[in-house]
Amino acid sequence: MSTSVPTKPVTTKSYIKDYPRPQFVRQAWQDLNGEWDFSFDDERAGDAGQWMNRFPEGRTIIVPFSYETKASGIGEETFHPQVWYRKKLTLPAQAEGTRTLLHFEGVDYKATCWVNGVFAGEHEGAYAAFSFDITDSLNPGAENEIVLKVEDSQSCTQPRGKQRWINDNFECFYVQTTGIWKSVWLEYVNATRIDSVKMTPDIDRQMIRFDFQMQGLEGKNNLRLEAEITLKGQPVRSLSLSVDRAWLTVETSVLHEAGGPWKQSLWSPQNPNLFDVEFVLYEGEREIDCVASYFGMRKISIENGQILLNNGPLYQRLILDQGYWQDSHLTPPSEEALIEDIDAIAAMGYNGLRKHMKIEDARFLYWCDVKGMLVWSEMAATYEFNDEAVERFTREWLEIVPQQYNHPCIITWVPFNESWGVPQIGREVKQQKFTEAVYHLTKAIDPYRPVVTNDGWEHTVSDILTLHDYVERGEDFLAMYKDKDVVVNNGVAFNQWKHAFAKGYGYKGQPIIISEFGGIAFQTDSGWGYGNQVSSEEAFLERFGSIVGAIQATPYISGFCYTQITDVQQEVNGLLTEDRKPKVPLEKIREINLGK
């Protein structure tokens, strides 16, 4: 188990502060965050009243914060099923002669957009990014008006994660999020352009594969795509290929070209090396598109019951991270706040995190890439099982996986947690087959990362056996886990009545991780933690050390995930308070995590 501290990060060549999509960077863009006109529409009168043309005056909101948050300038936590936004703007001169794309990084839940009164598009799903080409609706040289209607519900068939579906917080469910909650921005592009690039590293062959999707090739016959790859400012590889179809694939060697032993160029928590790459599309000799990006050469795999990173054993010391802030809830208050959380996690001796019930801001994943922080990416749950829930969940998850695919920091996909949304998975074949289908669909897009099908218990097909156990004492943990065969063969109950595998499924030698435990809270009357509350720093550290030490002393366990980094509203079991103040010295947590 390495105890080295990650090297000081250096940003990629493509980095632009606050740029919403840091793995696919163009220079011509416009930030639309800030003040927008806003209106509640509880009577759903907006469509009939033509609000897309005659927006009601009087109220504003600060985007991208949802109206429930103080940061939005409104701070009303009452649920409203329909809200409207308006933004007036004049386009810059650079927009002339280009296509204008309107990007929304996250809107909860169904968004319908008009530009200058003309329908631009709609999207359903709170956590996936989406965009509309609004060029043909714009008024060049004049003021333009973007209007967005957002419909939300308290339905448990929509993926909602930790958002409550009743009027008050309860258990581990918090104030809902409605409307725009991630960045909104414009991008100015050529009609003929690079639409996406899927980047797949292969360290065993020392190759990188680029899968390009192109846009607007109709009538074009003299297109050329060039790529320049560098590492730490040094040239690595140049590529040039003719573009004659919308989908292109090319592979190239990289590691042995980087200078020095190739293993020193791999991405890991200790050395988060990132290759910069620039893609340029030419029509003849004229440059018509330029995208800057980066990738990491790393491999996550499972062999003989062990999780391997770059073909070497990986012991995962993770922390649960729900990504909530006191005044802005699911939306980070700033890019600096994201960086501070990652730095705090590293300072406590963790080498990764499980992003719980949330698809996080792309800038967060960027900084995890840069700083070498491992990430489990987890889908927000539904809380009912029926055809509508299946369709909504699957459609959105299949948007999210490709959007996050290129981040080297992501090493595990987690589509389901604790049987949420599949409450009868233990015995009901239909729900079991749904999780199998999602597992295989995820593997169809990304066969290179492990998939945890139902984190916590009642697994069906799963690459890792993950267990949630909030036993308080290390000695009790050791007694329960002393016999591996008993644990993996459903001889131990979790959460009183759950077992490791659903009926009809069994252990096939998977690595085992305790992916939730701890949750220790200090004495308080205003919230809850797991088990008995503690009254002093000394008592906290003794219990924390007891349970962490027991997990580390169990030889067949491949890692752990402690609950959790911060307090979240009524759940006060964080190592930090909701406003990020440490409850105990971070170095003491680090010493225990690293076994010092």
Q: Mind explaining what this structure looks like?
A:
With 596 residues, the protein is of the alpha+beta class. It has 3 domains: 32-189, Jelly Rolls (Sandwich), CATH 2.60.120; 193-295, Immunoglobulins (Immunoglobulin-like, Sandwich); 300-593, Glycosidases (TIM Barrel). The protein contains 8 helices and 29 strands. The chain has helices at 335-347, 362-371, 387-404, 429-445, 474-481, 484-488, 537-552, 586-593; strands spanning 29-31, 34-40, 60-63, 82-90, 99-104, 107-108, 110-115, 118-124, 130-133, 143-151, 179-180, 184-189, 193-202, 207-215, 223-231, 234-243, 247-253, 275-283, 286-295, 300-303, 306-309, 312-313, 316-321, 352-355, 374-378, 410-414, 465-468, 512-518, 557-563. It has a 7-stranded parallel beta sheet, with helices on one face. A 6-stranded antiparallel beta sheet has the order 3-2-4-10-7-8, with no helix packed on it. Helix 3 (387-404) packs parallel to helix 4 (429-445). The longest helix has 18 residues, at 387-404. The radius of gyration is 24 Å and the shape is globular. It starts with 28 loop residues before the first strand and ends with a helix.
Question: Can you count the beta strands?
Answer: 29
Largest sheet: 7 strands, parallel
Residue stretches low in confidence (pLDDT < 50, at least 5 long) are 1-8
Mean pLDDT: 95
Radius of gyration: 24 Å
The percentage helix is: 10-25%
CATH superfamily of the largest domain: Glycosidases
In one word, what is the shape?
globular
CATH-level-2 architecture of the largest domain: Alpha-Beta Barrel
| Coarse structural class | alpha+beta
- What is the CATH topology descriptor of the largest domain? TIM Barrel
Distance between the termini: 12 Å
Adjacency order of strands in the biggest sheet:
26-25-24-23-29-28-27
CATH class of the largest domain: Alpha Beta
